[in-house]
Amino acid sequence: MLGQAPDVMSGLDRDLKKVFVKTYGCQMNVYDSERMMDALATAGYAAAETAESADLILLNTCHIRERASEKVYSELGRLRVLKGEAAEAGRKVLIGVAGCVAQAEGAEIMRRAPAVDLVVGPQSYQRLPALVADAAAGKRSIETDFAVAQKFSVLDGLPRGEESRRLDREATRDKNYSAFLTVQEGCDKFCTFCVVPYTRGAEVSRPVAAIAAEAQRLVAHGVREVTLLGQNVNAWHGEGPDGNDWGLGRLLFHLAEIPGLDRLRYTTSHPRDMDDALIAAHRDLPALMPYLHLPVQSGSDRILAAMNRRHSRADYLRLVDRVRAARPDIALSCDFIVGFPGETEADFADTLSIIDTVGYAAAFSFKYSPRPGTPAATQADQVPEAEKSERLQRLQASVNRHARVFNASTVGRTAEVLFERKGKRPGQIVGRSPWLLPVHVDASATLIGTIGRVVIETLGTNSLNGRLAAPAAEPRIPLPMEATA
Ligand code: SAH
Ligand code: SF4
Ligand code: F3S
User: Fold this and answer.
1) Is the full-model pTM beyond 0.70?
2) Max avg pLDDT among 143-147, 444-448, 467-471
3) Which of 335, 343, 368, 388 to mutate to test the pocket of ligand 1 (most atoms within 8 A of CB)?
């Protein structure tokens, strides 16, 4: 009898269908892909290692720039071939498109790509198991209706056992010590270049209790650093346990009380939503890492107004000063768009000068890409492609210079590093500095999952090298008479 157990187990395993999710775009999509896997686990799907071995292939797509959207159609071309080959071998493969391209152009995907069996927008992932069942029965469906949107029933209504089981499985493979946690979705700001308010819908914030419960589950599975996510994460406002409306600063203090949750980060912030409580958290909350991604997009007041960012260059620089006064060693990072319609060489010079003034530790920069349905796309004064490319090169050269200066400034310092994995070289482990840069150290792999003090010694291309610092002396406990003196 006992001897039969493994056979029964492997029989069960064989019955599990396999899903492969390919993720494009931002960290919100990375997080959502995991939630989709959780939802599909309830329908009997396990993760596939490759698209070739999967029964269901999902593309979690990004619509932010034209090139991001185009990738989807070329990938669908490849998958059509794969699906055809599987069918010839007598195996049925389903293909689904999720994410922001699904939301923006679901009907067009269905028309252009007959191999696609289902389209599901980011608001509707709780419907995924039902849509997959329909697809298996031969019914192609599109689910992108905001009216039936219940996004947060996916995040908060999922059978929690599934999430825990997934985390258990991960724990036996590559354990994650750093995890994302979505606290806020959607955007009400309508920058004139951006599709996000259309693809992700209006701002929604999760309540504190749901966020804290998810953070506790992550910590129970070994996570020590949590990055709170949202398209406008610092616009988050949720109901606290006291029934009052809380902001992100207060939420961070609350989460830092969870034993074992040692490090907190958040992204992406809008300059208009950096309130006093959040800035104070950077001053008073040791668990909050000294890193802030604070996109400005352009340094020109004229362009900022045309983008509908609703703050000036001076407002932004004042904010940077306040954040730096609260946390002098903070690393600032940014997003920039070059060649927004009407951007002149003088406007662009303002962007270069804001980079010099702030001295960012890192930045993402993009050529403006006209997006269907956004106001800026139909402006007459589009900047020629060659000019955009040339500006992008100059901007990136400047950003790289500043990033190197910032990274070099950490050499010689002792920093706390969360070791996350083995390095490429034997005997080496890698973690992240408080300022988010990978740090390589020669040390025992038993330290992975712990936070160690590292003396930063040299600067690599996009990383740092260091050595373990001598253990910190035990804090001296004051004698009773000292304590009362
Ligand atoms: N909510 C964040 C940005 C999310 S989108 C914020 O307001 O800062 C991520 C980045 O993509 C943006 O910061 C912007 O730099 C870039 N982006 C968005 N739309 C774009 C477009 N149409 N063309 C080029 N870059 C774009
Ligand atoms: Fe897009 Fe602007 Fe919203 Fe950011 S704030 S997601 S750039 S509309
Ligand atoms: Fe892309 Fe959607 Fe994120 S458009 S950047 S995947 S919110």
Assistant:
1) yes
2) 444-448
3) 335
Find out whether the beta carbon of 340 lies less than 6 Å from any atom of ligand 1. Answer: no
Ligand nearest to the CA of 368: 1
3-state secondary structure the chain: CHHHHHHHHHHHHHHCEEEEEEECCCHHHHHHHHHHHHHHHCCCEEECCCCCCCCEEEEEECCCCHHHHHHHHHHHHHHHHHHHHHHHCCCCCEEEEEHHHHHHHHHHHHHHCCCCCEEECCCCHHHHHHHHHHHHCCCCEEECCHHHCCHHHHHHHCCHHHHHHHHHHHHHCCCCCEEEEECEECCCCCCCCCCHHHHCCCCEECCHHHHHHHHHHHHHCCCCEEEEECCCHHHCEEECCCCCEEEHHHHHHHHHCCCCCCEEEEECCCHHHCCHHHHHHHHHCCCECCEEECCCECCCHHHHHHCCCCCCHHHHHHHHHHHHHHCCCCEEEEEEEECCCCCCHHHHHHHHHHHHHHCCCEEEEEECCCCCCCHHHHCCCCCCHHHHHHHHHHHHHHHHHHHHHHHHHCCCCEEEEEEEEECCCCCEEEEECCCCCEEEEECCHHHCCCEEEEEEEEECCCCEEEEECCCCCCCCCCCHHHHHC
Each residue's pLDDT tens digit, 92-109 = 999 999 999 999 999 999
Test site for ligand 3: of 21, 23, 28, most ligand atoms within 8 A of the Cβ: 28
| pLDDT number for residue 274 | 98
28 lines ligand 2 (CB under 6 A): no
pLDDT per residue as tens digits for the range 386-397 = 999 999 999 999
Report how far ligand 2's centroid is from the alpha carbon of 222 (Å).
33
**What pLDDT, on a 0 to 100 scale, did the predictor assign at position 327?**
98
Q: What is the pLDDT of residues 251-298, one digit of tens each?
A: 999 999 999 999 999 999 999 999 999 999 999 999 999 999 999 999
pLDDT range class, residue 174, cuts 50, 70, 90: low
Cβ of 23 less than 6 Å from ligand 3: no
pLDDT at 469: 94
